[in-house]
Amino acid sequence: MLPALDDHNRAFWTAGADGQLRVPFCTRCGVWVVPLAAECPDCDGVLESRAVCGRGTVFTYTVNHQPFNPAVPVPYVIAIVELEEQTDLRIASNIVDCEPDSVRIGLLVEVRFERQEVGDESVYMPVFAPRVD
Ligand SMILES: [Zn+2]
Asked: Is a pLDDT exceeding 70 seen at residue 126?
């Protein structure tokens, strides 16, 4: 499932070109905002795209055994990853580079990017892999 890029989500989906995960940040409230939005839901302030460290933990997950998409081999892990920067800063993603059975709530993970083409733009899907350090 690939996103249609617009001015509000482009930074998020393309920042992986630089190896960075970028998330909208409200400078007025001092909070990170997901899902991707044009304005801060609390103060309607303009959001700026800022890099996060890319590390987090598995908040919850499910192992999918249903082949919805022939291009994606099963089983694979769909997870909500909570980023280190803020306790409610969670993004839906996949856990890669490990056995699906080894994924646990609280698993320490870090971001990777999977490049895909959308029209004539490259999208860098953030996925997460177990942290090795
Ligand atoms: Zn705000």
From this structure: yes
Predicted pLDDT at 2: 73
Please check whether residue 3 lies inside any domain of the structure: no
CA angle 114, 116, 122 (to 5 degrees): 110
What spacing in Å lies between the alpha carbon of 32 and ligand 1's midpoint? 9
Per-residue pLDDT tens digits for 19-58: 999 999 999 999 999 877 778 999 999 999 999 999 999 9
The parent domain of residue 43 ranges over 10-130
Structure tokens at 16: 């992986």
Q: How far is the CA of 47 from the centre of ligand 1 (A)?
A: 8
**Other C-beta atoms lying within 10 Å of the C-beta of residue 131:** 12
Question: What pLDDT was estimated at residue 1?
Answer: 62
What is the CA(26)–ligand 1 centre distance, in A?
Answer: 5
Distance of CA 40 from the midpoint of ligand 1 (Å): 5
In a domain, 16, yes or no: yes
Count structural domains, the chain.
Answer: 1
